[in-house]
Amino acid sequence: MPGRAQVMTESITVENLSKRYELGALQQETQLRDQLVRLLRAPFGRRAPKEVLWALRDVSFTVQQGEVVGIIGRNGAGKSTLLKILAKITYPTSGRVRARGRVAALLEVGAGFHEELTGRENIFLNGSIMGMKKKEVDAKLEAIVEFSGLQRFIDTPIKRYSTGMRSRLGFAVAAHLDPDVLIVDEVLAVGDAVFQKKCVSAMHDLRGGGRTVLFVSHNMAAVENLCSRGMWIAEGRIKLDGPMREVIEAYMGSFASADGASKALIAADARGGSGEIRFTRVEFRSTDGGLQTVTRCGKSLVIRLHYRAKEPIERPAFALRMYTELGTLVTDTGTWLHGLDIPLVPAGDGYLDLEIDSLNLVPGRYYLSLKVDSLLETRVYDALEHAVHLDIEEAPIYGLSRRIDSRFGLVFFPQRWRLDGIGSGARIEVSPAANG
Amino acid sequence: MGQWVSEIWHSREILYFLAWRDVKVRYKQAALGVAWALLQPLFTMITFAFFFGKLAGIPSDGVPYPLFSYSALLLWTYFSVTLSQVGNSLIANSSLITKIYFPRVLLPAAAALGGLLDLFVSSVFLIGMLLYYHMTPRWTVLLTPIFVGQTVLLVMGLGMLLAALNVRYRDVKYTIPFLTQLGLFVTPIIYPVSFLPHRFQGWLALNPMTGVIQGFRACLFGGGQVDWDVLGCSWIVTLLLLLIGSWHFRSTERVFADVV
């Protein structure tokens, strides 16, 4: 198939898909007794109206062969229902789905594994249920075992496996299914970094082979790195369908409201200082001027500090400290440290900007402390500890999908590893995707 | 229906692996292993032979009572044990149903198939008993698989119906052991059909297992006239249940994943 020219053929067509769940009805009447009681009480009565939930409502889209589509959205938005319908596990209330070729769905890594069976036995069982012929499993067994990296444990019952080992085995089977359409739900959430790399690489290979991939994940770095097209699902509908990066930014923006990017400090308690000048507001802005509701790691940021001076202040010094959630000081910066001497701040409102070119901090929540004091005397005008927080969101770091967080330290540098000195043996395992 | 059958045929390897899993798991950590398949009908037979054969003196159509009851218990044990496994096959595999697509009917079918290993093991013992009692098997022994096959169809028909109902109404889970317990007494296992007053014999024929067991015994031991009416009735009921079972299963399987 790789040889065939990439003609645009529709791989998945979804038309007016809706799925309705009746809430309550299921729990209430799963006992025959309850139904009988109801019948006796009101033989001709009408059933209590059921609460209805539309998990999906009138969803239509097409996916071309070879596209890798990332599906994002909050929990309960309908992503999983969509995947389940595409995987034929559940049926739509109305609408149609057509998929071309073999569809493999990986909704839960290692679904269908049996605790008592060994890794090897589970490969056969799982592979077969997922649609492989026994001959295929026989032929690919060695490759699957090797991919999983579980050679030593392959004849151990998987009840002795850790969660990580199970998912490795599960993904190893799935990676060898050779489907035309692969549907994947949040598999990268588990497993160690090396294995995640393998998974991503396997998914890249699928894309290279002209396979269609639908990928649901909350790991935005992975989604952005793997997928060219994004779909944001909210309340059972497609809210946005477009280039992955735009969709992610719109989605993240929906969490952070504008007031997250602009925080008033007037009412802040726990502040010290004599009060001749006070901070009134902190704003996070982008370099092109507007408020920045989403700040992603590695990107630029302008922190605007608004103040109000009751009287003219001679030679003040403004300072800002940034802490991690655990209270580690990340940086301490200020006008004085930058050699700036402000002769006079007139009475009234004003602001000053701190421009950061690239915020090379790992994703997470950071707290800002603010201070303004005097260069002339030991006097603190205003001091706010942990006045506001700044959420730094994920983005592909080093051009990879790996989720990098506080386990990997605090910062990352613009950097590269050079392997020229190693000789011919070294090669790049993961092809870093086009990273924008 | 045709499409359904062809899809099942294409998935026959899954059926094999599911049945293989069921069997493997059942005996994986059992010290006695497959011997368990033998112990249940064996001890039931010994108990029956003592209380019903010896103490109560229930007739057995001229066949030694242990042989008479064991031959029936062979099929009955398969029927009752497997029926409960088939009936619970969907809810026991709910994690599969909600995560992977495959023809759902493979789950009850695998349970019905997996039980055949036990039946095979306990049949070997039956051959030993025949030799012990110096019964020379007649050529009709070759016909016994027909009745085994009929039992499988019956288990499937009834089982598909129960399994599908079980997904929605968990009451079924409790009903199955109750049904099979009663069934033991309205099936000619402990007694021959001739033991009952004539007016009850017709009712007994409505139980499809009556025909199965009568036919099975006739093939093994010869003697006695085969009652073609009973046999015919038994097949009609079996096929009817198979039809109802698969129809109900078909019409509800789309919601299994939502309800289970």
- SSE string of chain B, helices as H and strands as E: HHHHHHHHHHHHH
Q: In percent, how much strand structure appears in the residues of chain A?
A: 25-35%
User: Averaging pLDDT over every residue of chain B, what do you get?
Assistant: 90
Percent of residues in β-strands of chain B: under 5%
As a whole number of angstroms, the C-alpha radius of gyration of chain B is 19 Å
Let me know the number of strands of chain A: 21
Topology-level CATH name of the largest domain in chain A: Rossmann fold
> Unreliable segments of chain A (pLDDT under 50, ≥5 consecutive)?
1-6, 429-436
Count every helix of chain A, treating DSSP H or I runs of 4 or more residues as helices: 9
Count of domain modules of chain A: 2
Sequence stretches where pLDDT stays below 50 over 5 or more residues of chain B: none
- Helix-residue proportion of chain A: 10-25%
Number of helices of chain B: 13
Largest sheet of chain A: 6 strands, mixed
The CATH C-level name of the largest domain in chain A is Alpha Beta
* Beta strands of chain B, count: 0
Describe this structure in words.
The complex is a heterodimer of chains A (436) and B (260). Chain A is 22% helix and 33% strand. With 436 residues, chain A is α+β, with helices and mostly antiparallel strands. In chain A, the strands form five sheets. In chain A, strands 5-6-7-3-8-9 form a six-stranded mixed β-sheet, sandwiched between helices. In chain A, strands 11, 13, 16, 17, 20 and 21 form a six-stranded mixed β-sheet that branches. In chain A, strands 10-12-14-19 form a four-stranded antiparallel β-sheet, with no helix packed on it. In chain A, a hairpin with a 2-residue loop joins β8 (229-234) and β9. In chain A, 37% of the residues are buried. Chain B has 260 residues and is mostly helical. In chain B, 75% of the residues lie in helices and 0% in strands. Chain B contains 13 helices and no strands. In chain B, α3 (35-55) packs across α4 (65-87) and α7 (106-132) packs antiparallel against α8 (144-168). The longest helix of chain B has 27 residues, at 106-132. The model of chain B has no long low-confidence stretch (mean pLDDT 90). The A-B interface holds A 21, 26, 30-33, 84, 87-91, 105, 107-108, 111-112, 114, 116-117, 121, 124-125, 128-131, 133-134, 157 and B 13-14, 16-18, 20-21, 24-25, 28-29, 95-102, 168-171, 254-255, 257-259.
